[in-house]
Amino acid sequence: MTSFTGKSIQIDIPPSFGLTAGFHLGKTAIPSPTDERFRLTMLEIRRPAQAYAGLGQELSHVMEMVLIHRELASDQWANVILPFQVSTSGAEMDIINPIIDGTKLPTRISQTGYVMASATGKLSVGSAFDNATFSEFWNTAPAAGCQSKTCNVRFFMRTNTLSIGVDTFAQLSNALESAPAEEPVQPPETTWLIDTCRNSTGVCKIKKAEDIAKKLLDLEKYQTQAMKEQTAKKGDLDKNLAELKTHTGVATKESIALYQATVAAYNDLKAAASQLSSVEFNVDNARTLANEAKTAVWDQEAPKTKPALAATSAINSAKPAASFADVSPQKQEQRNDCSALGQSPVDIDTKKVLDPSHSAPALIQPLAFRYMSLADGGHSEARLQLSHRGRHLRVAVPPGSVAWPLGGVLSSGVLRGVSYVDIHVPGEHKVDGHVPIAELQLVHESVAGKPAMAVAVPLELGENENEWLRPLLGHVPTKGASKEVFGSLMSTLHSTLASGATSSYLRYDGSLTKPPCLATEWFLLEKAGTINQQQLSDLGDALGIDVSSPESMKHGPAFMTSLVMRGSPRIVGKATETADIASSSSSTGLRVRRRAQL
After folding, report:
1. Which homologous superfamily is 2-188 in?
2. Domain 338-576 belongs to what topology?
3. Of 133, 198, 377, 574, which one has the fewest beta carbons inside 10 Å?
4. Pairing between β-strand 519-525 and β-strand 452-461 as defined by DSSP bridges
5. Res 155 pLDDT > 80
């Protein structure tokens, strides 16, 4: 039986089926008498909570299915949340389609219907747990049919998406068309990562947690080295300055060479100071995690007592409240000029970039790009909001959109939706002193203290026009205004985006270059895209910049780099070791693995 709750599609699970569907928490594939055992009672299919596309959503997805379980020995509940993204390949399994295929889903409150209408239909969700990792935490959720009552619920959020077909997504979207947008719930800072294995398959292999104490020790060693390097650079500068003070009279070749050496020593000192600052920041973060690792205890957030099993079978299930989105308010000082932070943009000296490809190749991880436009069924045009911000243009996802026309960026197992793209003329980042003629910044603007992520895409002059810019340049609004436009797929912006992934990038920690000046994980593509002269002139006209004038194209402030890695999303002091870094729906907090048996 299925019904429409006003917010979701609810599917009741017959007791006979629920007796064989569920999971237990333990260390072996065969449950012990002390393991918590849960049985499936209900499914709910809903849209994910939304602020606006790309903001604070750790895992880009368009639909969620919640598997509501009740513990056999008590009235404890467990909600397993599965995120779904649309796939057009047809090669990936769609576990929802067999449930709803050939059915007419209810669309009004109190309206009911039936699922599993197909003769070959089968309710099988076991594949959602194969080789999967879940983020676990305790929270509360309203009881079904009684919003004034809440239940303690153990939440399990799958950390990567499953796939549904276009037809499945369209059928669900039509049924949920009148469902209101829901407020997201932020997971606690400390969450636990849980792996899975199938019941009765033998002993499960429990992966080791990341050794945070060792990571902290390595960072502290590098911090000591950075302090020594800064002291040495300060000594070199002081020595050169002392020699310069003794010079009198006209300049000579020797005095000019000494002056140039002094300037170089000054720049080296700034780079060393910036590098030390970056390492100190990472050390502080590692110490916080290490302290959490010492004090955190499994189930420390569990309710004090478990409610006894009710005598009646009419138990209200715990309605799922938590979601993967995280849009809690953030106390962030609004700055008018992010350059006051002295962090971004930067001038990267490639001679000082750490390249782990030889010393620690396991650290090399490609930066992947995923693009889709679900609202328009995957057509070549995507609805966008184009804004004129004075010195730059911004292309954003329209407020309230559930589509992802700007796609997402996948790094370290976490897919982050692109909130907006800023277009700058000239570029903002320098590499070996060179400034690109233009730069596009793909930004995921996170919240709740989490760092933003940005990908800098440099553009240089070429004969061919940039296909992604073409439909935008004919509709640029006046200064301070915005308008909705139809744009091209992001894959037309740059050949790297079209290929889907690259390891040719530079990675550093900085800040956004425009308010709200969030701390930011920066990725700079090393290969430049192209823009032709006419498009550059059109951008210049729109922004009031004479692109033919060197003075107008003068680059703004660029800061010395901190630690920069090539081809690795991780910023480490020495590229000598690797660690099993696990992603989570909560990007802060403890990273500890415990295994759930399903």
Report:
1. Alpha carbonic anhydrase (3.10.200.10)
2. Carbonic Anhydrase II (3.10.200)
3. 377
4. parallel
5. yes
pLDDT in tens, 268-288: 888 888 778 778 877 887 887
Is pTM, for the whole model, over 0.70? no
- Give the integer Cα–Cα distance in Å for 471 and 452: 28
Q: pLDDT at residue 1 above 60?
A: yes
For 533-585, write each residue's pLDDT tens digit: 999 999 999 999 999 988 878 776 667 766 889 999 987 643 333 333 222 22
Straight-line distance from the first to the last Cα atom of the chain, in angstroms, rounded to the nearest whole number:
25
**What are the strands, taking DSSP E only, across 336-437?**
346-348, 367-370, 382-388, 392-396, 408-411, 414-417, 420-424, 430-431
- Spell out a b/e string for 548-584, using b for 16 or more CB atoms within 10 Å of the CB, else e: eeeeebebeebbbbbbbbbbbbbbbbebeeebeebbb
Q: Is 344 exposed, middle or buried (0-12, 13-18, 19+ CB in 10 A)?
A: buried
**Within this chain, domains 2-188 and 212-287 share the same CATH topology:** no
Q: Which of 246, 235, 87, 50 is nearest to 168 (CA)?
A: 87
What architecture (CATH level 2) is domain 212-287?
Orthogonal Bundle (1.10)
Tell which residue, 11, 12, 4, 1, has the closest CA to residue 107: 4
Amino acid identity of residue 404, one-letter, is W
